[in-house]
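Hi C.,

You asked whether I'd gotten around to modeling the 114-residue construct. I have! Everything is below, sequence then structure, no commentary in between.
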Amino acid sequence: MGPASLPVMDDDRERREALAAAGYTGARGAALFCALLAAVGALLGSVVLAILWNVAAPGSPESVSTGIGAAAGGLLGVLLGLLKIRQGNLDAREQVEDREWRRLVRRQHMDRAR
């Protein structure tokens, strides 16, 4: 890497740090959050969704209803987690871009005042 790439790397690092400070969730955090919501969803789904499945298909065995409920609850938990993370990441990006925009406008205003 030459000296010309160092300012770009500093800008990238500063942007990553600003995103992290604004609440941006990375891949590792997203995976952990989705795994947690999948476990909670599977626990709740094994009861609630299993009951709903038994109402919809009265002749099905309990183990099938519990398995379907747990799988559906886990999937629902993962989907909710991904939607929540996506919205939070969009908000974090918007917050960082707003700060950068205000900084740019302030800098241009100061340059014009000179």
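If it helps when you're writing up: Helices lie at 6-21, 27-45, 48-56, 62-113.

Thanks,
B.
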